[in-house]
Amino acid sequence: MDNKRIERFHSSTLIRSPHGFSTRLGGVSEGIFSSLNLGMNRGDDVALVTENWRIFLDDTGIGYKPFVCGKQVHGNNVHIATMEDARPAFGPGELIEADGYVTNVVDLPLAIFTADCVPVLMEDPLAGVVGAIHCGWRSTVADIMKSAVDAFISLGSSSENIRLAIGPAIRKCCFEVGEEVIEAVVNLIGEGHEDLYNLKDNGKYMLDLSEVVKTRFIQLGLGQDNMEIVGECTLCHPDLYYSHRFGGPTRGSLASAICLK
Q1: Distance between CA atoms of 222 and 162, rounded to whole angstroms?
Q2: Are strands 197-199 and 163-166 parallel, antiparallel or unpaired?
Q3: What b/e sequence results for 14-30 when a residue is b if at least 16 CB atoms lie within 10 Å of its CB, and e otherwise?
């Protein structure tokens, strides 16, 4: 794989299915959207974003085709996708309200969007099931991880066979949250994980949301050796990733996609 392709996306060594976590490099969008903007509701030119999707899906080996995505509402709904849910970039087709997708349908790409939140791609190569999950802090404390594992199991998977990759997201170095978020995290994963958050002098906390997600998946029966964190902190590297905390609403979006072959 050449350097140009590597810049456009990150991939996991654990997942066999074609997949990728996008960066903001190697696309055709301009200005504040420069350059591989995959967000379809940011105000970018439709033709440019469509071309970015072609670049991204072709580079990952998924191939440019209709894919499953939807309206992310920071909840814990994980939709079991069928070919009827597939739509090209910008439609036509009704958007699903969900923060995750799981499928056992071959050649059906699943995609979620992030710009600081934690993206998770999942695969059970034995059962033939894949998933893409958007873990913002609200969907995380609402236990979208359990919804995802339950969806896998409903399609014949076993938790110990699931492989998982966590992509670029805001890391502990930059993710400042209030006490209410920490309380919700403790309610989710229990006591004894104080290493995942640090109290600051201003009364706020620095939270490692990626490790919270990983910890919860371990509690749900996934093996630690079947998990990998790839990519860097989105806020530390706004030149490489779109970051909501860096750019606010006037920015592009990253995407994470996977497809069962």
Answers
A1: 6
A2: unpaired
A3: bbebbbbbbbbbbbbbe
Q: How confident is the model at residue 196 (pLDDT cuts 50, 70, 90)?
A: very high
Q: Provide the token pair at 259.
A: 């497809």
Spatial distance between the Cα atoms of 118 and 136, rounded to a whole number of angstroms: 6
Distance of alpha carbon 94 from alpha carbon 145, whole angstroms: 25
**pTM (2 d.p.):** 0.97
CA separation, residue 77 to residues 41, 57, 90, 210 (Å): 21, 25, 22, 19
Q: What is the pLDDT of residue 198?
A: 97
Question: What is the per-residue pLDDT for 176?
Answer: 98
Tokens for 14? 């654990």
In this structure, what are the phi and psi dihedrals at residue 111, rounded to the nearest 5 degrees?
-145, 140
| Alpha-carbon distance values, 23 to 72, 116, 132, 146, 152 (Å) | 20, 12, 17, 27, 27
Please report the pLDDT score of residue 166 as a whole number. 98
- The helix/strand count (H/E) of the chain reads as 7, 15
In the chain, the percentage of residues whose pLDDT exceeds 90 is 93
In this predicted structure, what is the pLDDT of residue 59? 96
